[in-house]
Amino acid sequence: MTLLTVRSESWPIRGSFTISRGSKTSAEVVVVELSRDGNIGRGEAVPYARYGESMQSVLDEVESLHGPLAEGLDRQGLQALLPAGAARNAIDLAFWDLESKLTGKRHWELAGLPPPLPVVTAFTLSLDTVDNMAAKAAENAERPLLKLKLAGPDDLDRVAAVRRKAPAARIIVDANEAWTVAQYTALAPRLLALGVEMIEQPLPAGDDAALAGIERPVPVCADESCHDTATLADLKGRYDMINIKLDKTGGLTEALKLKAAAEAEGYGIMVGCMLATSLAMAPGVLLAQGAPVVDLDGPLLLAEDRQPALKIEGSLVYPPATALWG
Questions:
Q1: How far apart are CA 254 and CA 261, in angstroms?
Q2: Residues 30, 63 contacting (CB under 8 angstroms)
Q3: What distance, in Å, lies between the first and last C-alpha atoms of the chain?
Q4: What is the predicted pLDDT for the residue at 303?
Q5: Distance between CA 36 and CA 167 in Å, rounded?
Q6: What is the pLDDT of residues 137-157, one digit of tens each?
Q7: Could you list the active site residues?
Q8: Within 10 Å of residue 51's Cβ, how many Cβ atoms?
Q9: Can you tell me the distance from the alpha carbon of 136 to that of 78, in angstroms, rounded to the nearest whole number?
């Protein structure tokens, strides 16, 4: 029988982290442990209010599975039992980790994939004043890829200031649904001139049909508009890329399906994350193989990480050791 434990944890952020919807000073995560035959599998997820989740709602959703687990619920059965979201993600990842320990196979073997290689992650500059974002860019000018959180009228100045301070870095930007069509149309050509390679979710998810009728000189990536394979059909003609996050797909099982389906339809792939520890990032390294844009910098933004942690050298993220996950 598989036994379940679940808890909430709080991990302090280095300073604060700000996007268009607000600021936070800690990463609030849910950790699930599944135990069987002396082995423990772990998974970590982040409840997200934007998607109607709270810490309590996710904990309650996880706790509802004691009965199904006692009756033999497995990872495949989980996919139909819970909707995509943080609760299913934490349990799905715990199942992967447990299966790895029970079989002696690494997670990529269970997935039928080659061993993963290290990936280069973006480093995120949270939303701030032009001067503060420029200073942060100067501190991280040697990083190969910077992701800028944007939100309003000073966005062009923010990007220009970062470009001056980090002339060699690739730059992507994320508006977190804060722009209008007029803002995208006005900003995109000028951002292209500054070397911006991608704009993530410029419009609110409910308003993104407008993207189908405009020129997109800078590729547009769906984040809040794309959760799992069921949401892929609505993106046609509106987006050039999708951002796959485990907390949106409800785990690695669905994320791998979404990646394959999106690639088959010609979308570029970004693999992203919520703000969390190495335990949440670990499965993302496998998912990120071959992706042109990777954003698994959660541990780099924390004041401390769980141990053992992912090995990260600069912006190079290595696959997890067995002691961490999978």
A1: 11
A2: no
A3: 20
A4: 97
A5: 52
A6: 999 999 999 999 999 789 999
A7: 149, 245
A8: 13
A9: 42
